[in-house]
Amino acid sequence: MNQSAFAELHCVSRKTVTKWKERGWLVFAGDEIDVDASNANLKRYRRDGAPAVTQGVTQAQKGNKRKTVTQAGSEVTLAPGESADDAAGRILTGAVELLNFDAARCFKENYLGLKAQLEYDRESGLVIDVAEVAKAVGNEYAKVRTRLLSIPAEQAPRLHRCKTPAELQDMLQEVITEALEELTRDGAGNPK
Fold this sequence. Notes:
Layout: H1 3-10, H2 14-23, E1 28-29, E2 32-33, H3 35-45, H4 84-92, H5 101-124, H6 130-160, H7 165-188
Antiparallel strand pairs: 1-2
Helix pairs in contact: 1-2, 6-7
């Protein structure tokens, strides 16, 4: 099909078809336009998609079907004999369906909204960084370890004076309880 006929088919001017050609949206087979491939490009790149130019199959009613905000809700199906690594590679290499302009804009706006919500939650203290928590827990464990390892050196002379195992057990119980209470008092004074 030539450019004039393609313009008539889409009810646009020949100048519009020339602009589509300059943008690389039209696919040519020699001097003629490949209608199916060009329509697919128009649907992908034009803001409102390509208007229907041929009688298509009747689509199911859209209704008020709820959609997920992000693609995390969409499932990845494994082809027969495909491993999870192969599926991940397929997705990462871009063998996925591209979104049309409106769906991409909606996806972007949802992403920006979720990002703003995350920043708000982070600033208000509802969300904290896992690395910060891991660092704080590591510091507390280091304090406990240091304190417990210092008990034998500090208490050896006192433990040496014990005559029976029961006396030794009571003294160790008292020393460990005292050390843990000390650590608890230190932690209560430093909320982070």
